[in-house]
Design brief:
By secondary structure, this protein is an alpha/beta fold. Helix content is 38%, strand content 24%.
Length: 242
Amino acid sequence: MSSLDTTLQISRLFLATLGTRLFMHCEDRIPRQGAVLVVSNHRSFLDPILLTAALGRPIRFACHHYMGQVPIMRDLVKTLGAFPLDKPGQGQQQFFQQAIALLQRQESVGVFPEGAEPMVKFTEPDRVGHFHRGFAHLALRAPIQDLLVLPVAIAAFEERSLGSQIPLRFLSLFDPSEPLFNQPGSHPLVFYKRVNVMIGRPYWITHTHRQQYEGKQAKAAVNDLNNYCQAEIANLLHQGCF
């Protein structure tokens, strides 16, 4: 059994152990092969595991830098085949290089454009925050034919939160470069009991998109992709949480 198949089995077993009930919507939109950039909202440490199980194929997630530093989280990241982002303030060149290499191998790469803030501040299930545009730059600059960007909404309609469990200042011991940890409060832990995973309409990156990105319309091309994914996920959340 390959390590990728093992990741998929671990994800399904983990959710079964927690008793998480997963409901799929529009799963016919999920490609079974080829390079895919999965874009999703983010509220729980379970999200990478949930999406891997839901999409039925291993996904290599870009995760926050601190997750590669904190014990237990570091082991979980390694087991799931995720790769931490660069330290804050150091750019994202390493992220682009790793993600493009994975996509060139026709693997799936997952990103959470809201970043780490929803993980340290409890947010409502039907809300999506501001999107960072790094994923759009990645999609438009990756030299991959027929790259598919797949927006996915994680819409919990029954969950359990353990509230504030891990002090943020404690996490700063492992990653002092992260400004989010230099504040009072704690890291909430959200567990899904019943959750809708809603697959959005795919966005295919065409030769025309790449031409626009390399020219004077680069900013518009990035904004179009960013806004499309954010609007698609927000609309799906509104449907899935009620």
